[in-house]
Write a sequence for this structure.
């Protein structure tokens, strides 16, 4: 499941969920690459909030997201439209 919303200068990733059998097989990485590519076509950043205990934070960092803030429960992250491609982007790797 994927939910996004366009807000001002960014595409906000509201929710991404992969059922357990599909996790750790590269699907999340590929879905995120598609979201990033679409945002880049629109010259928009991608933003999201990730629960602090969620290991997906490492995936987002690998894809070029940087933490811009936090609260008690979440880290808020952003990947600029003009960010350099991450190693996962460059190699086409689908590992998550």
């Amino acid at each position: 499941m994927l939910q996004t919303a366009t807000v001002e200068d960014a595409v906000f990733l509201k929710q991404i969920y992969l059922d357990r059998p599909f996790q750790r097989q590269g699907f999340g990485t590929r879905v995120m690459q598609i979201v990033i590519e679409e945002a880049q076509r629109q010259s928009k950043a991608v933003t999201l909030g990730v629960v602090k205990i969620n290991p997906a934070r490492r995936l987002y960092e690998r894809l070029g997201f940087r933490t811009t803030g936090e609260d008690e429960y979440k880290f808020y992250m952003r990947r600029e439209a003009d960010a350099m491609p991450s190693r996962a982007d460059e190699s086409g790797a689908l590992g998550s």
